[in-house]
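Supplementary Methods. Inverse-folding protocol.

Structures were first reduced to a discrete structure-token string of length 192. This string, shown here, constituted the complete conditioning input.
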């Protein structure tokens, strides 16, 4: 009786990016095998082209270096293979859709590469690296204007109200005056 070695089929992943805004994007991953485990992430397009485009496997090496660096700083595990504990925290399986901002803080009008590769719980690479390039949008300029009313101040806090002229989203931050000193009364007089 002759038996043939079973053929191992490495999983494949369909990686897509949609719902792109000025600071986020929806990543969708569909695995060819629902039980396959994988790691996904985002890097800048310039990093990808400088270090990985000719050899996408370099993304895996970058992640291994990251997990090893984190393990070296931690005294939590002492198994001799601490990097695997960090890797396991990021493993996914099945099909997933999530906001890219859960993995990477994106900037507007910037280019990125989402990636995905199969990896087992024991740290073995089980697939090629799949990538999808995309660009975040430029923010839309709002004609919103604001009236800020300082209600009360103390040595360590400030209470204030903000009245906006429309319903466009906006961000409020309380900073020391030196934080905004570089901004002039007009864009031409600002350092930015």
């Amino acid at each position: 009786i002759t038996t043939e070695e079973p053929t191992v089929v490495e999983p494949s992943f369909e990686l897509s990016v949609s719902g792109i805004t000025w600071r986020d994007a929806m990543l969708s991953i569909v695995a060819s095998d629902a039980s396959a485990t994988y790691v996904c992430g985002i890097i800048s397009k310039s990093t990808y082209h400088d270090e990985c485009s000719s050899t996408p496997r370099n993304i895996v090496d970058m992640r291994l270096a990251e997990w090893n660096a984190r393990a070296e700083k931690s005294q939590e595990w002492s198994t001799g293979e601490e990097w695997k504990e960090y890797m396991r925290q990021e493993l996914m399986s099945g099909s997933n859709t999530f906001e890219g901002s859960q993995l990477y803080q994106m900037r507007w009008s910037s280019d990125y590469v989402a990636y995905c590769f199969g990896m087992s719980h024991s740290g073995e690479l089980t697939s090629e690296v799949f990538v999808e390039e995309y660009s975040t949008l430029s923010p839309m300029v709002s004609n919103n204007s604001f009236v800020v009313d300082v209600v009360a101040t103390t040595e360590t806090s400030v209470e204030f109200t903000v009245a906006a002229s429309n319903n466009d989203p906006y961000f409020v931050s309380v900073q020391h005056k030196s934080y905004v000193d570089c901004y002039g009364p007009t864009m031409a007089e600002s350092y930015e």
